[in-house]
Amino acid sequence: MAQPTQWQFTVRLPRDFQSKALRQLMMADWYLPKHLVFSLKRGERVLVNGQYLPVNFDVHPGDQITLTFLASDFEHPYPNVIPDSAATVKVLYEDTNLLVVNKTQGSKTHPNQPGEVGTTLNHVAAYLAAKNQQPYVINRLDQETSGALLIAKNPAVVPVLVRLIKEKLIQRTYLAWIHGQLNQPQGVIAMPIGRNLADKRKRQVDGDHPQMAITHYKVVEHLPNATLVAVQLQTGRTHQIRVHFANLGHPIVGDPLYANDPRQQRLLLHSWRLRVPLPFSFNHITLTAGLPETFNQFESRHFK
Fold first, then answer.
1. Based on the domain organization, do 177 and 135 belong to the same domain?
2. DSSP type of residue 25
3. pTM score over 0.85
4. Among residues 281, 283, 277, 275, which one has the least CA distance to residue 148?
5. pLDDT of 167-197, one tens digit each?
6. Residues annotated catalytic, as ranges
7. Minimal CA–CA distance to 130: which of 80, 82, 86, 71?
8. Is residue 289 part of a domain?
9. Domain count of the chain?
10. What is the pLDDT of residues 120-170, one digit of tens each?
11. Are 211 and 190 in contact, with CB atoms under 8 Å apart?
């Protein structure tokens, strides 16, 4: 498969656009990092209405902006992911720049070793191979966590999406069944999370090299011995939702690391809703990922 050597984006500014410097549009509205703006400027690869325009000049409603990125603009322009079967790929959204899939429970997000296959990213690589495109991982979900997973389809949108996540402009809502009853209808958990020195697989509150972690939750439903919560993360620490609720004495049902449940009970944590501002655009999408069968089975057992 021949690798693409450049990626071009053409956008017409909307009628309600407020005139501003081209540099401000690229950095403040489209979240391009400074080094990419410099590369576009130096190579005269940013055009306004078909002509190069210095980035300190203003652009106006109705102007057509064309950006052309080269492989040399990026440290890693091509991901090294081996295509695997595309049979399990469930697409929630796709355009020319990004893909959102409903990750299956039990599938790792991405390979950790050279030559590794069988992960979600390997499956997506097979799905995209027919389109001469490749997947770029943006965020990850734990292996046993299902749901909406965001994947880029070219290197130009990777730094944009990463920055949108960092600045909390991509909103992710999770659903989780936790053990016990939460009396407060909503709340905020603010506890630092670090490594668990006794078990390298685990994290813990106030563990080794802790970093502040903030989790927002809202109660959705009660069962006699369990509570369904909708969760949004203000920070993105490893195992954050799992550690925070376990520390409160309400571990997620089926958590193999933090709950004392039978092995056959799967983790009931799902990336449910995703709101994403679209790169090089002024629009956004909101997507909902259907719940896995494990959620339905859990509820049906309690309502028999």
1. no
2. I
3. yes
4. 275
5. 999 999 999 999 999 989 999 999 999 999 9
6. 142
7. 86
8. no
9. 3
10. 999 999 999 988 899 999 989 999 999 999 999 999 999 999 999 999 999
11. no
